[in-house]
UniProtKB/TrEMBL annotation:
One of its GO terms (cellular component) is membrane. Keywords: Hydrolase, Signal. One of its GO terms (biological process) is glycosaminoglycan metabolic process. This is Glycosyl hydrolase family 20. The keyword Signal applies. The keyword Hydrolase applies. It comes from Pseudonocardia cypriaca. InterPro entries: Beta_hexosaminidase_sua/sub, GH, Glyco_hydro_20_cat, Hex-like_dom2. Residues 93-322 form the Glycoside hydrolase family 20 catalytic domain. It comes from the Bacteria. One of its GO terms (molecular function) is beta-N-acetylhexosaminidase activity. Belongs to the glycosyl hydrolase 20 family.
């Protein structure tokens, strides 16, 4: 066998076994033989190319699809095309999914959804979920989605057909307990709230977000899931049920005190899930409540109900953020009832209640894109590998890469791509893809040309460069959106961040990706980099109160121009509904700059 490392790196994902032999490959017109091999694992394939021709063995339709994909890549590679090769390959995780948040203002256009599907197919991911709170056009609830440019039933049926054609399962995803604030804000639904007058979290008053755990509310939530699920062919749904902040603190407080918060949660979960299980659905739900209530894990039904363990900070990044926390932050966490230390244990700690109970589960890491402006690539890589290691160790049936949209989802689609592609690679085969270069993979698989991948990877490195680790976010986003958790950043770190971002901006000015949406991706990425550079400038100035009125005025004009371009870039890939709400997230910063400029 001859090692051809440069060519191996050109295959994506890298196969678990690739032999490059010291003999010629097949002639251009040599036959391709295909046969079923029942001894292969699910979705597995073998590919042999030698002087006699090409032979493909496959376990199932998915294995044949992936074999042909590898064959295309080998034929296109100048070093491998003329060589004899043997490939044997199959995935670590049967389900390799992507979950896109469409409820934090940014609802993608059909063109954008098609692009995501094409990327998922190229990366061998086989499930897509669109996380929904209020952005599906439910028949009897127009007041909730009227201003959101929601996906319609026709949109979902179109997308379902598109996914099916690419070997991808489209899964209906609708939250059913927490994160229902967009519903509870309306008078018609307010009485469904656990705490109709709102609640306090992190020292701030918040609008009601959690349904009261009643049979009527379970029927209400179940009806939403069923209406959405009726638009797709999959017999799998995600009912959310995560982060019910108010649960047991409002109308259910007496019940929780008597029977335990975990039992109250489990009752609501099963009221929604059991009818779906009886209808033949597999039911995913987020497993964060189980981390604090292991008794719930032990009481779950034996089959069909899939806990999805999520964790979005790599263990080392979480440890660094926790070590930098101020006494005031720690006091606030304690006041809110949060034990943050387990985050430094990564997926092993987050899944402990399930592993202790011997319950199967899926893992859900993140792209590191949200709350970041340009991504947190170092954290994403650590988080994605951690999920793959722990998921594989415990036989997890699914690995779902998530991307969220906190604070108005200002990050455009390209910022999600590095984490998405890397997660796809390590969920296919961790051992052979751990060292995949996200930049090179992006240029080959997504952009069809050099430059843009390197710019995205460089920009995504800045969160680590500023040496200000935060949980679930970057100091760059904190600077723009007024987080009180933002730590001070050393001047030399900010100078290095500006240098890297300036280099990314220069690279983008010269990038010419051949992909059909390459021009859109370049413009959206350039806008994200410009916003990040603005955040660096604000941090370097020491904050708004340290600015002279003249300096504040200059930054104000710069921000106004950025907001104009943000609006234009938004409409390149997202629907107009939600745009004003997202742009409004910049209002506090703009007001503060205006006040300082006027002094």
């Amino acid at each position: 066998m001859i090692a051809v490392q440069s060519s191996i790196a050109h295959l994506f994902p890298v196969p678990r076994s690739l032999e490059v032999l010291g003999e010629p490959g097949p002639a251009p017109d040599a036959p391709v033989e295909v046969h079923v091999d029942p001894d292969l694992p699910e979705q597995g394939y073998t590919l042999v190319r030698d002087a006699d021709g090409t032979r493909i063995g496959h376990r199932d339709d998915a294995g044949l699809r992936y074999a042909r994909q590898t064959l295309d890549q080998v034929r296109a590679d100048p070093e491998l095309a003329g060589r004899a090769v043997r490939v044997r390959d199959w995935p670590d995780f049967p389900v390799r999914g992507f979950m896109l948040d469409i409820s934090r203002d940014r609802v993608p256009t059909r063109r954008t959804l098609r692009r995501y599907v094409e990327i998922l197919a190229a990366a061998r991911m086989n499930q897509l979920e669109l996380y929904t709170e209020h952005t599906f056009a439910y028949a009897d609830h127009a007041e909730v989605w009227a201003r959101a440019s929601p996906l319609t039933a026709d949109d979902m049926r179109w997308l379902d057909a598109l996914c099916a054609a690419h070997g991808i399962t489209l899964v209906a995803n609708q939250n059913t307990l927490g994160h229902m604030e967009r519903w509870l804000a309306h008078d018609r639904y307010r009485d469904r709230a656990e705490s109709p007058d709102g609640f306090t979290l992190g020292g701030h008053h918040r609008s009601p977000s959690t349904l009261q755990p009643t049979p009527d509310n379970a029927e209400f939530a179940l009806a939403l899931v069923r209406e959405l699920a009726d638009t797709v062919r999959a017999r799998r749904v995600n009912i959310g049920a995560d982060e019910p902040w108010e649960l047991g603190k409002g109308r259910s407080a007496a019940d929780a005190a008597e029977r335990g918060l975990g039992q109250v949660y489990l009752d609501h979960l099963l009221r929604v899930a059991t009818p779906l299980l009886e209808d033949g659905y597999e039911v995913q739900f987020w497993a964060d409540v189980l981390a604090d209530h292991p008794e719930v894990a032990e009481a779950l039904p034996a089959a069909g109900l899939i806990p999805v363990v999520w964790q979005y900070d790599g263990p080392a990044h979480a440890r660094a953020a926790l070590d930098r926390a101020t006494p005031e932050q720690r006091e606030q966490w304690a006041a809110d009832g949060f034990d943050m230390e387990p985050l430094a244990g990564g997926f092993r700690e987050r899944a402990k209640s399930l592993t202790s109970a011997g319950r199967p589960f899926w893992v859900a890491p993140g792209t590191g894109a949200w709350n970041s402006i340009v991504g947190r690539l170092g954290n994403a890589v650590e988080n994605l590998v951690d999920a793959a290691e722990i998921g594989r160790e415990h036989g997890a049936g699914g690995y779902v890469v998530t991307t969220w949209g906190d604070h108005g989802h200002v990050e455009p689609p390209p910022v999600t791509y590095p984490g998405l592609l890397y997660g796809a690679a390590v969920s296919w085969c961790l051992d052979s893809n751990r060292d995949v270069d996200p930049a090179a993979a992006l240029d080959r698989v997504v952009f069809d040309g050099p430059g843009l991948g390197a710019a995205l990877a460089a920009a995504g490195s800045v969160a680590d460069l500023v040496d200000a680790p935060l949980l679930n976010g970057s100091v760059l986003a904190s600077a723009l959106f007024g987080s009180e958790d933002a730590p001070a950043v050393a001047p030399e770190a900010l100078a290095e961040a500006e240098r890297v971002l300036a280099g990314a901006a220069d690279a983008l000015a010269n990038a010419r990706p051949a992909a059909a949406d390459g021009d859109v991706a370049v413009r959206e990425t350039a806008q994200a980099v410009a916003l990040a550079r603005f955040a660096v400038a604000l941090l370097a100035a020491g904050g708004i109160t340290a600015l002279t009125p003249a300096a504040a005025g200059e930054l104000l004009h710069r921000l106004d121009a950025l907001v104009v371009e943000q609006r234009a870039c938004w409409l390149l890939s997202a629907r107009p509904g939600g745009l004003d709400d997202s742009i409004a997230k910049f209002a506090p910063l703009r007001s503060a700059l205006a006040r300082r400029a006027a002094q």
